[in-house]
Write a structure and sequence with these properties.
7 helices, mainly alpha, Alpha-lytic protease prodomain-like
């Protein structure tokens, strides 16, 4: 296993902390936006952001704890890194399951409407922020592998894709809320997000398990 230098650890810990702090506002603002609209995609997005916030905290705490306690043996360090990776995988998977259940349960009765513009604004800001962190974590992973950072790379890749889908669904509602197609765009947006998050959760869990087993860098750019 490659060991991070003090400078590399400090840079990565700072990035994790900034990502955590920026993510704290997301559940609150998205929750307010949900109250102003009737979007299934946006409600699912609120649940996703809340679950992901927990995963971000665990990843930051584990990375910080390991960086400040170098006396751990290799086995224990790898085990804690696996916990962080599996937490991210669980967050992605739980969000996907909730989204899928919500979309299917509202398929026959849901009618889009309400004020979706706050949600669009939040999703656009999220897209910009999450895409930046995706690129940042990708760069850090290429420079020096860390399973915790690689899990964040995969998480923010999923978050970027989710924000794009949310923007698409809410824009359709804003443009033509009463059109029959809009209803299916919003519902199908949740289904697409659910499938993608479940797939991302599986891939993240697989990478965490393989890293523990082989104790070597495993990059997943496919």
């Amino acid at each position: 296993m490659n060991t991070l230098s003090k400078e590399q650890s400090a840079s990565r810990e700072k990035t994790l902390l900034v990502a955590l702090l920026l993510s704290m506002w997301a559940p609150l603002t998205t929750g307010i936006a949900v109250l102003l609209s009737h979007s299934t995609t946006q409600l699912a997005d609120f649940i996703r952001r809340s679950v992901e916030l927990v995963a971000l905290f665990v990843s930051w705490w584990v990375f910080r704890y390991l960086a400040r306690n170098n006396e751990f043996d290799l086995e224990r360090k790898v085990r804690m890194e696996r916990i962080a990776g599996m937490t991210v995988a669980a967050a992605l998977s739980c969000s996907g399951i909730v989204m899928l259940i919500l979309a299917l349960s509202r398929f026959s009765t849901f009618e889009p409407g309400g004020n979706v513009y706050p949600g669009i604004a939040i999703a656009v800001l999220g897209l910009i922020t999450n895409s930046w962190f995706w690129r940042r974590y990708s760069k850090l992973t290429c420079e020096q592998y860390s399973s915790i950072i690689d899990a964040q790379r995969q998480l923010y890749r999923a978050k970027t894709f989710v924000d794009f889908c949310v923007i698409t669904a809410l824009t359709a509602v804003a443009i033509a809320p009463t059109h029959p197609v809009t209803r299916y765009i919003d519902i199908s947006g949740s289904v697409i997000l659910a499938v993608y998050l479940l797939w991302s959760g599986f891939r993240t869990a697989q990478a965490a398990v393989m890293h523990t087993k082989n104790n070597s860098p495993i990059l997943d750019d496919k």
